[in-house]
């Protein structure tokens, strides 16, 4: 059973910008070998969750630079026959589109900020209200499920809209979990945070499957 991880630091006196700099430096400082090894551990914890196993559809970020690597997770979900969605940035109006992919990485191409996203000619936009699980990146997470992202607010808007019924999970290295984060009114809390050291459950939704899955 995955164990609840310990908070890595108390950032009470740190601003969001200071936290971003500190935790980005931590991630960037990991060796490639350690990053891949610990990413595999975090992904294994994610895939062991009932909410993941019974999800019919999931939106998962495509890892970039020093983020927890999601290649193995995406490939495994595709092999399991799940509907796998990856985010596509929409600039006007500002937001995220959840696009289905059937091959990885063949269905992707560099998009906004250089991050791989679904290619224009293969994009199949999926209804947000039909997503069971959303796996999000971040620079920091806290024990209440608050998340510190990269400042764009894309995931907060997405999770506050039609995708609000999905279970929202953060994926990170253990050191990225802190006691408390500064939050804004529009920040959307997550239901659980998964790291290489275990699972931090925040809400009861993290223990259940979606209504659609229960009905089948």
Say which CATH homologous superfamily is assigned.
Answer: NagB/RpiA/CoA transferase-like
Largest sheet: number of strands, sense, barrel closure? 8 strands, mixed
Count of discrete alpha- or pi-helical segments spanning 4 or more residues: 6
What is the name of the CATH architecture? 3-Layer(aba) Sandwich
- Distance from first to last alpha carbon: 27 Å
CATH fold-level assignment: Rossmann fold
Please report the total strand number as a whole number: 13
Uncertain segments = 1-11, 209-216
**Structural class from helices and strands?**
alpha/beta
Strand proportion, as a percent range, falls in 15-25%
Order of H and E elements: HHHEHEEEEEEEEHEEEEH
Number of structurally distinct domains: 1
How are the strands of the largest sheet arranged? 6-3-2-1-7-10-12-13
CATH class: Alpha Beta
Radius of gyration: 16 Å
Mean pLDDT: 88
Helix content estimate: 25-40%
Query: Which descriptor suits the 3D outline?
Result: globular
